[in-house]
Amino acid sequence: MITVSQAQLIRGSKVLLDEANLTIYPGHKIGLVGANGTGKSSLLALLSGAIGLDKGEVRVPQQWALAQVAQETPALDKPALEYVLDGDHEFRQLESELAAAEAANNGHSIAELHGKLDAIGGYSIRARAGSLLAGLGFKESEQSQPVKSFSGGWRMRLNLAQALLCRSDLLLLDEPTNHLDLDTMYWLENWIKAYQGTLVLISHDRDFIDEIVDEIVHVEHQKLNFYKGNYSAFERIRAERMAQQQVAFERQQKERAHMQSFVDRFRYKASKAKQAQSRLKALERMAELLPSKADSPFYMSFREPDALPNPLVVMEQVSVGYGDTPILSKVHLNLVPGSRIGLLGRNGAGKSTLIKLLSEQLPPQSGVYEPNPGLKIGYFAQHQIEFLSLDDSPLQHLVRLAPLAREQELRDFLGGFGFVGDMALAPVRPFSGGEKARLVLALLVWQRPNLLLLDEPTNHLDLEMRHALTMALQDFSGAMVVVSHDRHLLRLTCSDYYLVDNGQVAAFDGDLEDYHQWLLEANKPVLEDGANGDKASVDKKQQKRLEAELRQKLSPFKKQQAKLEQTQTSLQQKLAALELQLTDLTLYDEANKAKLTQVLNDRNTLGQALEDSEMQWLELQESIDELEMSC
After folding, report:
1. d(CA 253, CA 262)
2. How does pLDDT run across 339-361, given as a tens digit for each residue?
3. Which of 6-15, 27-36, 420-429, 568-577 comes out lowest in average pLDDT?
4. pLDDT (tens digit, 9 = 90+) per residue, 212-221?
5. Which residue, among 140, 20, 2, has the nearest Cα to 63 in the 3D structure?
């Protein structure tokens, strides 16, 4: 097992860990979470031996083989498959020794090396590497292409394939889903679930963490805090602890104030001096509790668009592509205010092509394409980060958009995106990928778009910023089209899904779980068989027809449930805000009696609305269960 004992880690002037302890048992899957800058990646570096502690001890079993994803990929002429094979150093070493033995015609060494290769699965390694690359989205023809021919995101997939190919006891993954699309992420999720070794995972994708890990380590206040369960369980337990901590803090503050008042009144009176001294000592011994506070430094909301024309975009029988080659044909899609569309489809199917058509980067090749004259597009894509002026500050970027706005107004706005104090005035160049993505989002939000086009908006964003973005999108009054591998964001913000497949764009009758099943079916090889096979095919078609009919019947119920879940999330957040107000002791002063009454009335109203919404959800679920039982 892995043990971290009394660990202290200092980077520059910042203490990341202090007297921290942790035990990780073999075969367990750990999710490592915490605010940016708390030391999550540094902990992975400690476990890999890349850095050492300033104090304390880290023990990783010496016999354990370690695998982790390389952060750099050189522009090599080597084929992609061969590059992935380089990840298994033992295989490459034995391969080299075998070539030398064969050149020397050393029969004894040749036989011995063949035995070693067989023991480590060397004869199947190319097939395994090809399977990994296919799972990560590489076509068979691409696996022989040179590494340098791939973009940065695809090179990171090659590094991931290297790490997964290694036979390892400990796998360290730091944001492995950043450059993946949804179908590739499903594949990776299943691969990691089947992994037999010990896993330590850093990810900002809450659904991905939920599906994989069974334990959470939260890096907070320079400690490593252990929680049993997945991320959702961690959030629930931590929220309960924070609420208890807040109550205990307030109770202690009252007690301290009462004791201090007694001391101040009587410490110099002979008759009460002894009691005063006793209480003074009690005050000194009392452990100082801290008030609970939320982690997230981010708050964002989309400014109301200047206009909401209806419809925003009309498309009928539209074809779009590159040059004379169409990628999508016969697209029929009308966007109106309130449209909340998530695009689904395998890699390369044309999702980004559709986004580029809507963003007016690609002209339609044929058909009717009519954008409203009042259309105002807000387009977010990872490549837009490249257009930031690296020597300018976030404030300078925003001033260019709003030269007449007051500086304080602009700085307050940037503060909601985490650009506070000197950071709002600092050059963008040294910012991390997540910080640059936050700035692009901030600039987009400021411009009051009525159509949002979001192409993988959560890449590089941490959990807190993803949450802030998700909440803001729920209240956005315009139309939006989203491509994302973040299922949590899609589930909470999209009311309709469209499937991009085989050059077509069509409404998808189902949810993300149905899409996962569609992917599994679509990726199965087509088997040709004899008469029995024909019968099985007929039975299978009948089964698929029945399943499609059931999905069609269930779809309106599930859509209503999804809308109710969005409502419930909003109500729960508003209730939490009211509960936080009720912890303010000044609210109970006589002068605030009317405000207290209003807060209590609002809490009762919201609580009743939440209860009604939950009852509606349960009634819908009963209808769903009845339909499923009847089929």
Report:
1. 14
2. 999 999 988 888 989 999 999 98
3. 568-577
4. 999 999 998 8
5. 2
Give the span between the Cα atoms of 212 and 230, in whole angstroms: 8
Give the number of other CB atoms < 10 A from CB of residue 135. 19
pTM to 2 decimal places:
0.68
Mean pLDDT, residues 552-576: 82
Paired tokens of 349: 């199917």
Helices 512-522 and 182-194: crossing angle, nearest 10°?
80
The per-residue DSSP string of 439-487 comes to HHHHHHHHT--SEEEEESTTTT--HHHHHHHHHHHHT--SEEEEE-S-H
For residue 208, what pLDDT band results from cuts at 50, 70 and 90?
very high
Nearest-10 crossing angle of helices 433-446, 394-401: 20
| DSSP line for 266-287 | HTT-TTTHHHHHHHHHHHHHS-
Closest CA to 494 of 338, 302, 310: 338
pLDDT tier for residue 529 given thresholds of 50, 70 and 90 = very low
Tens digits of per-residue pLDDT, 232-244?
888 888 777 666 6
Query: Could you check whether the bond before residue 311 is cis, i.e. omega within 30 degrees of 0?
Result: yes
CATH topology of domain 43-234: Rossmann fold (3.40.50)
Q: How far is the C-alpha of 117 from the C-alpha of 115, rounded, in Å?
A: 5
Annotated domain spans of the chain: 43-234, 242-285, 313-518, 525-631
Q: Indicate the burial class of 3 (C-beta count within 10 angstroms; 0-12, 13-18, 19 or more).
A: middle
Contact by Cβ (8 Å): 494, 482: yes
What pLDDT score does 527 carry?
33
- Residues of the chain with pLDDT > 90: what percent? 34
Pairing of strands 504-507, 223-228: unpaired
Measured from the Cβ of residue 12, the count of other Cβ atoms closer than 10 Å reads 6
Q: For residue 111, give the 3-state DSSP assignment.
A: helix
* 215-220 vs 223-228, strand pairing mode: antiparallel
Q: What are 378's strand-pairing partners?
A: 452
Per-residue CA distances from 172 to 42, 45, 192, 474 (Å): 12, 9, 11, 34
d(CA 628, CA 549): 11
For residue 32, give the 3-state DSSP assignment. Answer: strand
Q: Do domains 43-234 and 313-518 have the same CATH topology?
A: yes
Planar angle of CA 345, 459, 424, nearest 5 degrees: 145
d(CA 12, CA 14): 6
Tokens of 370: 């009519």
pLDDT tops 90 at residue 435? no
Q: Where are the beta strands (DSSP E) in 340-478?
A: 340-344, 366-371, 377-380, 451-455
SS3 content of the chain, % helix, strand, coil (to 5): 50, 20, 30
To the nearest 10°, the Cα dihedral for 537, 540, 541, 543? 160
Distance separating alpha carbons of residues 39 and 437, to the nearest angstrom = 21
CATH of domain 525-631: 1.10.287
Q: Is the domain 313-518 a CATH 2.60.120.560 member?
A: no
Q: For residue 268, with 0-12 CB atoms within 10 Å meaning exposed, 13-18 middle and 19 or more buried, which class applies?
A: exposed
